[in-house]
Amino acid sequence: MAAKTESRKREYIIGGVALTLTIASCVAVVFYWDYVRQAQHYGYFGAFVISILAGATVFVPIPGILVVFTLGSVLNPALIGIVSGLGEAIGSIGIYLSGWGGQKAVQNLNHQFVDKFTDWIRRRGEIAVFLMSAILNPLFYPFAAIAGMLRFGLVKFFFLCWGGKALKNIAIAYLGYFGLRSILRWVGVL
User: Fold this and answer.
1) Alpha-carbon separation of residue 59 from 95, 136, 144, 162, 180 (angstroms)
2) How far apart are CA 44 and CA 17, in angstroms?
3) What is the phi/psi pair of residue 138, to 5°?
4) Is 135 left (phi over 0), alpha (psi -120 to 50) or beta?
5) Residue ranges covered by each domain of the chain
6) In the Cβ-directed half-sphere of 188, how many Cα atoms lie within 13 Å?
C-alpha cells in the first residue's frame, strides 16, 4: 500500500513539473518573443531552438513551420528537417510526461477522440505515434499526453516522434526550397 502511494506521489510530481515547464515555456515565448524571432537567424541552431519551443508549447502558436519552410530555401532542406524534427521531438517529451504524471486527469477526459486515441495507441502504438508525428495536426498534443498516460515507452515515443516530425519537416523544408527559392529567383533576389 505504501509503495502504491509513493508511486502515485511520484506520478503527480512528474506531471506537475512537466505541466509547469510547458506553461513556463509558453510564458517565456510570449515575454521573449523578439529573441525567439531572432533565433531563426542562427541557421540550423535557430531551427533547433525554435522547434523545441514549437514542440513544447501547447497554448502559444510558434511559427516553427514557417521557420522550417524559410530556412529550407536557404540551407540544406534535409538537414533543416532532421534538426527541427529532433527539436520538436525533444519539446514533445514535456507533453508526454504531463500525460504520464497526470494519468487520472487524462483518463477523466470523456471525449470521443480520447477513447479513439487510447484504442489506437493500444492496438497500433508505433504506427500511431509515427503517423501523428508525421502530419500537421493540432491533435498531436492530446495524443502525446494520452501516450504518456498509457505508459507507451518514452524512448520509443521519442524516436518515433523524431522520425515522424523529421519526415514532416523535411517535406516542409523542400517545399520552401523549391517554392520560395523559385519565387526569390523570379523576383531577382537570388
Assistant:
1) 12, 16, 15, 21, 29
2) 29
3) -75, -10
4) beta
5) 2-183
6) 0
Instruction: Tell me phi and psi for residue 24, to 5 degrees.
Output: -60, -40
Q: Model-level pTM? A: 0.72
Separation between Cα atoms, residue 23 and residue 104, nearest integer Å = 20
DSSP 41: G
**3-52 pLDDT, tens digit each:** 666 666 666 666 666 566 656 655 655 565 565 555 556 788 888 988 88
Say which residues have a Cβ less than 8 Å from residue 56's Cβ, sequence separation at least 6. 21, 22, 25, 90, 91, 92, 94, 95
Ramachandran area for residue 61 (φ above 0: left; ψ -120 to 50: alpha; else beta): beta
Q: Which three cell numbers mark 19?
A: 505541466
| CA terminus-to-terminus distance, the chain | 68
**How far is it, in rounded angstroms, from Cα 67 to Cα 84?**
9
